[in-house]
Design a protein that fits this description.
Blueprint: H1 3-7, H2 9-15, E1 21-23, H3 32-40, E2 44-48, H4 54-67, E3 73-77, H5 83-92, E4 97-101, H6 109-115, E5 119-123, H7 127-136, E6 140-144, E7 150-151, H8 157-168, E8 174-177, H9 183-191, E9 196-199, H10 213-221, E10 227-229, E11 242-245, H11 248-265, H12 271-290, E12 300-301, H13 315-332
Parallel strand pairs: 1-2, 1-9, 2-3, 3-4, 4-5, 5-6, 6-8, 8-9
Antiparallel strand pairs: 7-11, 10-11, 11-12
Helix pairs in contact: 3-4, 4-5, 7-8, 9-13, 11-12
The structure holds flavin mononucleotide.
């Protein structure tokens, strides 16, 4: 067994994959083709449910099962109004791993997932929240720093890793995400106690990814500093920042926030509806860029590791490169 896989043993055991390298769920990108390719190549693919209806998720899981020869997971957003129906769909298909993203799991959701026999993986934004989630019975945690693409928290991956791994890595497997583009970084987080890693940005330009060629080109051209976090313009409307490549869509988001804040002021919607409207906006804008190829007005969600994405390669090549780099780094240290 390679040194990397030795350090990943708890992660691979939990996931049932060859390597504890998850491809984090990416709305519109993480569908049947990329997810099955990741799992078949020895990583762990995760379907992004996003705003899908239960019927759509049902179809996507069935199609992924038909293509995948290895286990994969499903990522559900906690604020989805039909979360419990989505959990039932996962249970019906015997999905082995459910990742809950987008906030604290609502009451009864962990129990419902575990009752189906699936493992549940949650995001820990702070050490205190991580401890709480472990006490609630989660099987594993993801800690994701602000270098990541998509919705982000305020703390960097390196700081979260130092705060959380020494305390929680012995309790449950912890996967580190955000800003990982090369195997040397994987090696470093494993040495700090992580059981595996989660990458998103690095896999967007995989041959098997259905992202539009324009979307992939934008990634291959971009440097780290172009992947910027969105700015909240109204203190009354707390929006979760999103890291994306800067384009006209970035300004359109400012206008959208003003529009939603006005509706809040007029009493037309409440805070929950306001936040859902913002999230629907992102889902639509991301679809426009990923599927339609409108890279000017759509959302180009990307992490800072985008600067390390320079060509289209197969998932198997990307994983082999990451594994080789991680192993070389670990061996060099003796
Ligand atoms: C285009 C894009 C879409 C994403 N969509 C989601 C999502 O729907 N749900 C989620 O939990 N995370 C989402 N993420 C975050 C990824 O799952 C992953 O955690 C993140 O990309 C890891 O950091 P990295 O981009 O630095 O590799 C998205 C990321 C990107 C780049």
């Amino acid at each position: 067994m390679s040194k990397m896989n030795e350090l990943m043993a708890r992660g691979t055991e939990l996931l049932g994959s060859d390597h504890a390298i998850l491809c984090g769920a990416m709305s519109w990108v993480s569908e049947r083709h990329l997810v099955s390719a990741i799992s078949n190549a020895g990583g762990f693919g995760v379907i992004a449910c996003g705003a899908m209806t239960p019927a759509l998720l049902d179809t996507e899981i069935a199609a992924t099962k038909a293509l995948a020869t290895k286990p994969f997971g499903v990522n559900l957003i906690t604020m989805h109004p039909q979360l419990f129906e989505l959990i039932d769909v996962c249970a019906k298909h015997g999905v082995g791993h459910v990742v809950l993203a987008g906030g604290l799991p609502p009451k009864g959701s962990l129990e419902a997932i575990k009752a189906s026999g699936a493992k549940v993986i949650c995001f820990a934004p702070t050490l205190a929240m991580g401890k709480k989630l472990v006490r609630s019975g989660v099987d594993a945690l993801v800690i994701e720093g602000m270098e990541a693409g998509g919705h982000i928290g305020p703390v960097s991956t390196s700081v979260l890793a130092q705060e959380i791994l020494p305390t929680l890595a012995d309790e449950v497997p912890v996967f580190v995400a955000g800003g990982i583009g090369r195997g040397e970084a994987i090696a470093a987080y494993l040495e700090m106690g992580a059981s595996g890693v989660q990458l998103g940005t690095r896999f967007v330009c995989a041959t098997e990814s259905i992202a539009h060629p324009n979307f992939k080109k934008a990634f291959m051209r971009a440097s780290a500093r172009e992947a910027v976090a969105s700015v909240q313009i109204d203190p009354r409307l707390p929006v979760i920042p999103v890291r994306a490549l800067k384009n006209s869509g970035t300004e359109a988001f400012t206008a959208k926030q003003r529009e939603v804040a006005n509706k809040l002021d007029q009493g037309e919607i409440d805070m929950m509806e306001a936040q859902l409207e913002i999230e629907h906006y992102w889902a639509g804008a991301l679809r426009r860029a990923v599927i339609d190829g409108d890279v000017e007005n759509g959302s180009l969600m990307a992490g800072q590791s985008v600067g390390m994405v320079s060509e289209e390669e197969s998932v198997a090549e990307i994983i082999a490169t990451l594994v080789q780099q991680a192993d070389a780094a670990l061996h060099a240290r003796g």
